Amino acid sequence: MSDVARNLETVRARIGAAAVRSGRPADAVRLVLVAKTVPPERVRLALDAGQRVLGENKVQEGRAKAEALADASIRWSMIGHLQTNKVKDVLRFAHEVQSLDRLPLAATLEKRLQHLGRGLDVLVQVNTSGEASKYGLAPDEVMPFLQALTAFASLRPYGFMTLARFTADTDEIRRCFRVLHAIRARALQEAPQGERLADLSMGMSGDYEIAIEEGATIVRVGQAVFGPRPTSDSSYWPEAASGS
C-alpha cells in the first residue's frame, strides 16, 4: 500500500469517526481531495485507492491535471478564487464551483453555461472570519445574494463554503463554522432555493474534524493525504488562504 493510500485510509476513518460524534452516519461527509501542487502520477495513487472527487485551487493547474488524468473517472471541484476571465477554462474540466461569491462571476458563468447548454453545481462562499485577506460574502450579504441568484437558471446552488481563521484557537475555528451553520439554517427557511441549500463545505487538513463536529457535509483535505507542499500556501496563493 502506498503512503497516499495509507493516509487516505486514515483520513477517511477520522472523517467517519467525527461524523458519528456529530450524530450522523459515518458516510455522511464527502471528502474533496485537494490535489493542489500534486503531480498527476501521485494523484493516481489516490485514484487507485478509490478516491474519485478531487479539488483544485487554480484553473490552469486544474485543467492541465484533468487532461493528464482524462482516462480516469473523476469529479473535479474548483475550490479556489475564480476570476471571470477564467470561466471558459474552468468549465472545461470542473463539475462544480465551491467559490461563488459575487454576481459578476455568476453572470459570466451563466452566459457560458447557456452557450454550452448545461448547468453547474455551485456553493456560495462566505467569509465567516471577517478577514480582509479572505474572499467570500459577508454573512449579512448572503440572503440578498441568494435572491439575486434566482436570475441565473444554469446555476444550481446547493449550499455554502467557508474557510475558518488560521489559528490554534479552536474556539475561534468553531465560531467560524457555527456562523456558516447558522447561515444555512436561515437559508433553508427563508431563501428561494430552500431545502436545496443543504451542504456545508468547511474544514481542511488542520481542522476538518472540528468542521465535521460543527456540521460540515463536505471537507477539503490535501496535505493530510499527500503530505506537506514544497511551497507555503502564502507563496502559492498570496491573496487568501486556500482550502486544503
Uncertain ranges: 234-243
Shape: globular
CATH architecture: Alpha-Beta Barrel
Q: What is the end-to-end distance?
A: 23 Å
What would you say this structure looks like, in words?
- By secondary structure, this protein is of the alpha/beta class.
- It has one domain (3-226): TIM Barrel (Alpha-Beta Barrel).
- Helix content is 41%, strand content 16%.
- The protein contains ten helices and eight strands.
- The protein has helices at residues 3-21, 40-48, 59-68, 87-90, 103-116, 142-149, 170-190, 208-213, 223-226, 233-236; strands at 30-34, 53-56, 75-78, 96-100, 120-125, 155-161, 199-201, 218-221.
- It has an eight-stranded parallel sheet with strand order 7-6-5-4-3-2-1-8.
- β6, α7 (170-190) and β7 (199-201) form a beta-alpha-beta unit.
- 41% of the residues are buried.
- Residues 234-243 have low confidence and may be disordered.
- InterPro entries: Ala_racemase_N (IPR001608), PLP-binding_barrel (IPR029066), PyrdxlP_homeostasis (IPR011078).
- The modification N6-(pyridoxal phosphate)lysine is found at residue 36.
- GO terms for molecular function: pyridoxal phosphate binding.
- Belongs to the pyridoxal phosphate-binding protein YggS/PROSC family.
- Pyridoxal 5'-phosphate (PLP)-binding protein, which is involved in PLP homeostasis.
